Amino acid sequence: MDNFIKSDIDSIKTDRGLQERTNPVFNTAKMTLDLLGYAGDKTAAAISEQLGLTHDETMNSKTVKGIETDMLVNSLVNETRFRTTHELALASGCKTIIDLPCGYTPHAVYYIEAGRKFIGLDLPAAIEEAESAIRSQIPEDKQKDAAFFGVDATNLASLESAISGVTGEVCITTEGLTMYFTEPEAEALCDNVCHILKKYGGCWINADIEVSVQHLSTLRAVLGDEIMKRIRQASQKRVEEKSGFKITGNSLLCGKSGDIKKDTEKLRSFLAAHGLKGERMIISEYMPQLASLSRLSGEQQQKVRDALSRYAFWKITLTDEAAELDAGEVFQKGFDVKAGIAGSVLKLKLTGRADSMTAPRLLGLFEKAIAENGIKAVEIDCSGLEYISSAGLRVLIIMKKKCEHGVTMNNVRPAVNDILDQTGFDRLINFG
């Protein structure tokens, strides 16, 4: 190969633009912050002001604007999720709360007020933007009780590094994450949670598992069937445009089949395969008083409570049979790229993981090459590629769109091939 590009991928500087294009899903976290402020949370409103966010910027997508009715229901769903998760995390008795993803919300402020230590984990772009604004609401003498780290939830090495100083049991909390995951990402997340709980003990509170049916039942309780479907479709489209992801569901989510009992049985089997078991925590039994409810009539409030008596957040712990993990699985190979130009073809050799932590650098290298060399095709040697997340897949799509002769992947490992097959990328990419 001639005209060799610098092969040290670490030399590629990533900015927020690269991070957002490889994984824009964190933009929906700003919607959650805005909805908490709309529900009357003063700390959320203060963080939003500190960040300089506007309602239009936060809530509206390219083609869909948030309307008052939509705001009312979504603020109720988000406040329910936020405050009930908080109650369940405190009830766990764990002294350290690991919020994955922490987003832009004031969880850190409230957990620290309650005497807990807080570790906020999210995509690097979200942490870079949100940390100082959240910290501005924490008293100076309590700053040491909060820590924030950029991670990829599917990358155990990044999680391990972030929580390495923890002692005692942990409570991992998840709101607004698993609905954006592919099936392979959901499997990786469960394996990582299993590893963390084996090492530290504790539990995982997941508010996402039944969120689609919770949202639907809340819409029906507030609006009735007549306009519920139209509002729901518009709301989902708006979220998908803001996040850059089409929400299709995975084995960590209930409600896909329309039969919650059937989905629950499948979920229990899925968790067991990853050394985990789950307990349904009925929302109405743990839900504190919500400010959003005061905006509803007495009849609507009762219908919402009745609806939330059927759905649950999940408290997930280890099974007695959880298998010992091979210590070699913990620290995966570092990501590396060898790159060169042959005519109008960019040739890449990838090693390690192409995920949210590394995909921005890969995109930066590609855009440098196409700007300087008139690239028309990309050929990728995948013999050393161990894993590719949705962020890495997004880079492949960007490459394909910008190269008239497309992208060819050679020497693809079975594990990576399975991911491409399960996500439909096997139909978009050429294989050598």
Task: Explain how this protein is built.
There is one protein chain. By secondary structure, this protein is α/β, with parallel strands linked by helices. The protein has two domains: 22-318, Vaccinia Virus protein VP39 (Rossmann fold); 333-431, STAS domain (Transcription Regulator spoIIAA), CATH 3.30.750. It has 17 helices and twelve strands. The protein has helices at residues 16-22, 27-38, 42-51, 55-59, 68-91, 107-113, 124-135, 156-162, 183-200, 211-223, 225-243, 260-272, 283-286, 298-308, 359-373, 390-402, 414-422; strands spanning 96-99, 117-122, 146-150, 170-174, 202-206, 276-282, 312-318, 336-342, 345-354, 377-388, 407-410, 430-431. It has a seven-stranded mixed sheet, with helices on both faces. The chain has a five-stranded mixed sheet with strand order 8-9-10-11-12. Helix 3 (42-51) packs across helix 7 (124-135). The two termini are 18 Å apart.
Number of strands: 12
Might you state the CATH topology name of the largest domain?
Rossmann fold
CATH top level class name of the largest domain: Alpha Beta
Q: How many angstroms separate the termini?
A: 18 Å
The CATH superfamily of the largest domain is Vaccinia Virus protein VP39
Q: Major beta sheet, specifics?
A: 7 strands, mixed
Order of helices and strands: HHHHHEHEHEHEHEHHHEHHEEEHEHEHE
